[in-house]
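User: Batch of two.

Assistant: Item 1 of 2:
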Amino acid sequence: MDKNKNLPNKCEISTFTASDSTKLRLGFFASEGEAKATILLINGHREFLEKYTEFIEEFQARGFNVYSYDHRGQGLSDRKLEDPVKSHNPNFGMLVSDIDEIITGKIKPDKLEHPFYIVAHSLGAHLALRYMHDYPDVVDRTILLSPFTGFHDRSVFYVVFVKLFFAMMNLFGFGNEFAVGQAKNQQMIDHENAFLKLTHDKDRYQFSQDAIEDNSNLFIGGVTYGGAAETVKSLDELNENGYIEKIKTSVLCLLSEDEKIVSNDVTVALIKKMPNAEVKFIANARHEIYRETDEIRDQMWQKIDQFFSINPIL
């Protein structure tokens, strides 16, 4: 039992060992009362369980069992480089495989007798799309929050240049090094700029910073050239002709109206190609809808409750 004060109620933390021996920090958060469904919550880049405490507790109150985990290379899961601060995931296929291994090795053995859903944010939503493509008919419904399908406000020239630059840096053996401009320590994080892009709620923003203050091992810095090159490669795969159309799962995509991190235009174009998906915008929201102000989050929960067909929590 994890005694971390920053984690949700009814919390069980364990270690899940992936097929390549990578140890993943896995959390199970039991529903309040009899479970109506089970959710796998997939977080984003540089995130960790503590950041989703309030969100998880709200799902628990609605009658959901929730599983969530720290991605390999971040949070308290294994980090492969000698410098643990580097964000280094040079194979997104392993991140998708981790999702499947957790579902088949942990969640499904619990003998679910109710629906199974995915809720995923940003990079997690990107991975959820890849998972639903590679492993159809596993998930009953999925909610994507601000999915990372492309970079915000970047020209074609910029994207092409970045691809070539990252590929060249990897070719010359710099794959494990911080990419240019990336934060190498906590002191390099521009919290004022981050806050203005992520949320309007200072207290909710500060909650995750307090968790890092309590456990500095949760912190991870900027991405490596190897991680950056793989990110671009995975984005290209997601945007290949015919790829997204194969996803038949019922999907609700919630986009932030005031988005400054990912590309809403790319996401809308992709979601339109999916046979059972819809897009809804959350007015005034920034990238991290789930930790926005109460007024903005009320919009989010209204749409989530409707999609999952549950009575709202008053």
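Item 2 of 2:
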Amino acid sequence: MNRPAPISGGAPDPSAAGPSRRTIRRLVAVAIGLIVMTVGVVLGLGPPEGFPLDPDSATGDGLLGVVELLGELDVEVEVSTSTPGDTSTRVFVPVDQMPADRRAELVAFAEEGGTVVVAGESPGIHGLDTLDGSPVDALGRTPRAADCDALAPVGEVLHNQWTPLEVPDEALACFPVGEFGAWLVAVPTGSGSIVALGSAQPFTNALLDEADNAVLATMLLGPEPGDRLRIVPRGEVGEGDTALTDLIPDGVIRAAWLLLLAVIATVLWRARRLGPPVAERLPPVLPSAELARSVADLLQRAGDRAAAAARIREDLRHEARHALRLPAATPSTRLVELIAQRSGVDESDARSVLIDAPVERDRELTELAAAASRVRSGLRRPAPASSTDPGVDAGERAADPPV
């Protein structure tokens, strides 16, 4: 048995086509623009006015003020990332972001008799941990006294980052925080010392002239005229030992692994098959116009004029009952009368369409379809202005047509 050829024809559906080439080019251009902007931000040279704690920055969180202050006191200040060869030169590290080998060089420099001042909570150089549970004044700027003989000229220092550091037995502690911690801890290292600060905020341009912050800066970084100070600037991006994964909390990493395992388990569960896949051909989806044309073509090929006439009559009866708001049980003869009264359609046309009669020739089927079209057009015209139709009973008007 031969399979009938699929019915084709009609205009293609524009919505089924993919995006046009112009749309694709625009999307590609937008994507390239976003990538260029992202790369420009990531690989930029940082803020236009300098990084925080930058010795060349004049912003509120920069260190240009302390550099100029020490210069007025005849202290020779230079900015370099290398370790001094002379132990009489002090080293100031406002931000400890350097690799382990450079930290080891600074520790060796202190052991040979040099003085290294390190600010920040990172124990990379000074090796001191912060104390948990100790009281820290973090709500606004608060003054605190040095409370040690080594810094007797310093009365009070004002800022809001009093981070407590642990105090070893042999170390000198100033600015006590809590019961066991201190904000400034000087640890003897070989022939020299490493001075650890909880933060470098008192030396910034915004706070240098507050309380005795400037006095503390001169005593730690350049106590005598003619002294030399080397400030180690912030390292380049990617120069330190901290990787991007080190910044992610352990709980987030564990949650990501659990989510990955859940996705893999879901994929394995949904991908399970009890047998080989069976290809199933789905029936074609045809537009309504194509379907009607195909049914008519099949009826014409079969030569079944009676079936075509019955379909035309049944469709028109349903539409007439719906237009006249009549029940489904209304007989065809009653429909003919009401259609003639309500729509002005010729009663002969309505009778030839709605009353069953044999159709034996193609010409009769064509005339039947033309009469159905005229009746349908009459039904779609507005009803007469009279609100009461004597041809329709009250029971018939009250009944809703079948949907």
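The chain has a mean pLDDT of 78.
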